[in-house]
Structure formats: structure tokens, C-alpha cells
Amino acid sequence: NGGSRSSSDGNTSLGKKDVNIPYIASDNSTPRSLVIAEVLKKAGYNVTTTPIQASGPLYASVSQDSDSFHASGIFPST
Prior knowledge:
Elements: E1 5-6, E2 13-14, E3 18-24, H1 29-42, E4 46-52, H2 55-64
Parallel strand pairs: 3-4
Antiparallel strand pairs: 1-2
């Protein structure tokens, strides 16, 4: 239905929210993040994607913003 939807219990609504997706500009993270961004946009979210050069700033960005997440799936060994 192309916009904001809610569940039958009224507790879950989709769309019309800002979502930030920082990602490391790499062969595996970039396409995954951009595809997720497009899916969220079609669900009615306002999505911002931001390429980041290193994993440290990526994890810091996500930990400081409750409306951010990353789809990289690569975690440092330390």
C-alpha cells in the first residue's frame, strides 16, 4: 500500500521515520546496504546512506544513533 502500515494490534507502524545506514565502501557492504535502503524507502522510510572509510567510525556512528544500523556483518577481531 506504499506508505505507513500498522499491525492489527496497533503497536507496530512502518514508514515515515528517518533511518541512517552508514556502510563501509567495499564490495560486500555497499550493495547489501543500498538494497536494504531501497526496500526501506519502498516501505515509506526516509533513508540516508553514508559511505564510511573504516569500521571504527562505522561502529561508533551506529552506537550513537538509535535510528542507525549497518548491514556489513564483518566484525573486527579485537
